[in-house]
Design a protein that fits this description.
heterodimer, A: alpha+beta, 2 domains, 7-stranded mixed sheet, B: 41 residues, mainly alpha, 76% helix
Chain lengths: 253, 41
Amino acid sequence: MVNLSLLLGWKAIVQILILWLVIYHVFIFFKGTKAIYLLKGIIILLVAFFAFQKLGLTVLSWLLAKLFAFFLIFMAIIFQPELREGLVRLGKGHLFYIEAQKEEIEKTIKDIVSAAGKLSRRRIGALIAIKREIGLKNYIESGVNIEANLTSELLQNIFYPFAPLHDGGVIVVGSKVVAASCLFPLSDNSHLEKTLGMRHRAGVGLSEHSDALVVMVSEENGAISLAINGQLTRNLTPNDLFTILKGQMSKVA
Amino acid sequence: MKIKIDKGFVTNHFWLKVVSLAIAIIVWLYISGEIIKGVRV
């Protein structure tokens, strides 16, 4: 049994808090990526390993312990890009913050709002997702990689009706447009109005599956909408959109 | 002076925070148990 004095000591609390912080950020880092399934698999294997040990099933726990060694090597090879990105972020000191700085965020929001306003006036449909804490790698991979600096003109260009990438959504990370023509999951929320098109359902769907902010412009009436955590706010003016986006983005900055 | 507490600090990814804390406590208990066992041996 664990000594009770160890439980109550400040060192124990500090150690648990650090462990908590690290585990939480590992989860956040992998959420929205394929690696989350691997993480779940590891947790199940660990639980099984501890259960086998406690039950005295020595052969099974020995086998699992040996398998783990191979498993770690495989993991390092398969998830090399993710591990590299994590280490780079750790090196930059950004692991506990979102990548973009405040002025960068404000410029990004201004560009998005400006593009939404102009697209709305011309009744050109648009779907723009802004990544916050949860990764959107699965959705980024479904589209065309761009990795370009975000500008209002670029967004307008992407959604121009005859442009090759105008179908699907754009994903913005920090001050970059990372991908266009991305597929977002459709919302199956029965409370959404039946008149809403696929673009709005996809926008709401993505906001249900992640913490991304999703801006939509209707091609029917040019209305600007915003989806946050599965909630859709419609008929926003560019000023409203700017205020809400700034408020939402400052929460994670 | 008013102290403003952001609700999102707790409510954002609430279950993820709870699960992470549970895992952190279990890991700490297990490892400290192992260490104590090692010291006694």
